[in-house]
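Lay summary

Proteins are chains of building blocks that fold into shapes. Our project writes down both the chain and a compact code for its shape. Here are two examples, one after the other.
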Amino acid sequence: MADRGHTLVAFPAMIFVGASWGANVPVSKVMLAHFDLIPMSAIRTAVAGVALGVLLLLVEGVKALRIDLDFRRFALLGLMMGGFFAVYTLGLQFSNPITAATVAVAGPLVSAVTVRLVTGLRFDPGFPVALALTLLGGAILVSSTLVGGNGPMTFGGGEIVVLLSNSIWTLYSIKAQVWFDRASQLHRAYVASLSAFGWTMLLSVVLIALGWSRSPLAVTDGWAWTQLIGIALLASSLGSYFWNIGASRLGVAVASLWVNLVPFFAVLWSMAYGFVPNAYQIVGGLVALSGVVYMQWRKLGTAR
């Protein structure tokens, strides 16, 4: 029963991950028209670190803010998190959003292979069926462009970068679970965000000093700042925290299946920008959802 409750906690956590990361897709694409990539990543990790720190202080007390991780692991953890944010956003910058979503449905495959290579763990029971359902859902989700949706699909090259960035995030997820002793998932996300901010801030200062990036302080559009800070709180801060919860309870490979909910939620969030979902996108999202629900059902059956 304890194992069943342990698994059930992951369900709402991963729903939030899908919703917040789905919002990240259209917002990040729009924000790249206002901010340069690396300085934008530095702002996001800074906001995430502060938000997680405040939450950690309120929930666990001031002692929880102490970083007990050795410097090498602290630096590597942030390099992986910050590297993922930068690489993923770079892929979005040079992608057609529709084709990026098309390629991204193969993300769980990249994650599963990464887990297999790093840990040697076998796939959980029901994983192949769940993976097939989520991939099918992703395919349906983006197929509307092939039947008269938003025009022909174009390939910008960044789609492959978006796909491969899953391996960086998977590696971070694995290390975030094994490099700490008994730290809470909130503390792990906080430590990683602080380290990621250090890396992205250092790189931002260098790029701005060399004249290769614009200072974010030059952006005076209040709407752009509101969007950036909002998505940093939702996706980079709380999204990372709830991802750690899901990954710790489901395993990284199974949690990665939920990545296929991101395109579905991205469509819903995009309605705020004037885009209306069609039948293919709705059905595709429901099929993808059936995949992760099936995986949950199998895991609950095993836990009994």
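And here is the second example, written the same way.
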Amino acid sequence: MEQVILRYDGEALVEHSMNLKLVADSLQGIEALVREVHEEMGGKEEELNLQIKGGFQKGSFEFLFTLGQQLPDGIELLKIIGFGSPIAAGSLMAYLEWLKGKKIQKITMTEEGDCKIVTEDGEDKVAPSYMRPLLASTSVRGAFSKIISKPLRDSGIEVFEALSTEEKKADRTQYVSVTTANEKNYRAKNTTVIDLIDNKPMDEKVITFLTVHKDKDTSWRVEDVDGITYTVKMEDEDFLANFRKGNEPDIFVNAYAVEIVEKENTINLDKTYSIVKVYAPE
């Protein structure tokens, strides 16, 4: 069981009132964020138990957030998010603070199995591999916007904090403090990663065609000399035009040398293949 206090502070809360929509959006954001991180870390929905109690203290509004979950290897979800440890400890919030609202140019995998984040202005940082989908997720950014950015843009709310749960305020540890000066680090984005696809030219291959289409350039199937089959997109426009004119009558008989490019989605690691050049039949 993990617990944390999420707290808003500012002049607007002196009178013990907070915009109802901000409260509702914040709660929705917390639930959405926790559920997505939990799922990305391999958790099952039925293993997640979220409970929230809210109330006003003088000049502030706070939630007591209790999380019950079963993740492998003793993974603590709140620490991964940043609500359960200091922000400098490599949490999701720590990486968002490092990004400072900038877009990610690309995310690649290192030989050690971590991910390398490169910003649009060329800065880079290595993070654990599980941060790859979380930092790329627009819904994660949207959830943080509801929890942090939008409330801090509302007049009179000046600070968002994550605190330990000791009864006496003086005994509480401050894990996170975000002010109006850096709320922009948590704003929603329609695009988080600019270059989602990593193009990797493969060695030239000799292939035979198994499936071809005159009406489309996708879902072609080929087999190489090692018996490996690929579903490919045909991007050699000259060859495609020649084929459509009926000038490749022996396309299923001939062996062709081709250049194939592997296109890997750097977030979900899905791979697709494109033939970019077809040479004369062998």
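What can we say about the second shape? The two ends are 65 Å apart (CA to CA).
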